[in-house]
Amino acid sequence: QVQLVESGGGLVQAGGSLRLSCAASRSIFSITTMGWYRQAPGKQRELVAAITSGGSTNYADSVKGRFTISRDNAKNTVYLQMNSLKPEDTAVYYCRAAWFDSWGQGTQVTVSS
Questions:
Q1: Which residues are CB-contacts of 73 (< 8 A; sequence separation ≥ 6)?
Q2: What are the C-alpha distances in Å from 14 to residues 70, 101, 113?
Q3: How many angstroms separate the CA atoms of 64 and 107, rounded?
Q4: Which of 44, 94, 100, 102 is deepest in the core (most CB within 10 A)?
Q5: What are the residues facing 78 on neighbouring strands?
């Protein structure tokens, strides 16, 4: 089992940036894909970005060119750098360790227009 803790959410104006962090309780990145998901009010949870154990990344079309997923293996931490934020990016953001099907508690991101 693994515990995940997200941080870095907050309130930002449209066009601004935030960096989310997801700290894992132990070293797992060599064996699992890590994903960032988001869920807006009244909508289904959706995958935003993922990074595989081999380091390959993929993004939802809605965030390509604006968001970047990365990881620091030494810190057991995955990041989501979010630039050029839009009001439609407002959601609770969660990280997930796919192999363990473990989720963090979520962090709120609110983008004002």
A1: 27, 29, 30
A2: 23, 32, 5
A3: 21
A4: 94
A5: 22, 71
Q: What is the mean pLDDT of the chain?
A: 97
- Report pLDDT digits (tens) over 31-86: 999 999 999 999 999 999 999 999 999 999 999 999 999 999 999 999 999 999 99
Pairwise CA distance, residues 90 & 74, whole Å: 30
Strand partners, 70: 79
Residues 6+ apart with CB under 8 A from 87: 14, 111, 112, 113
**Residue 97: phi, psi to the nearest 5?**
-100, 105
Instruction: Give the per-residue pLDDT at 26.
Output: 95
Mean pLDDT along residues 12-17: 98
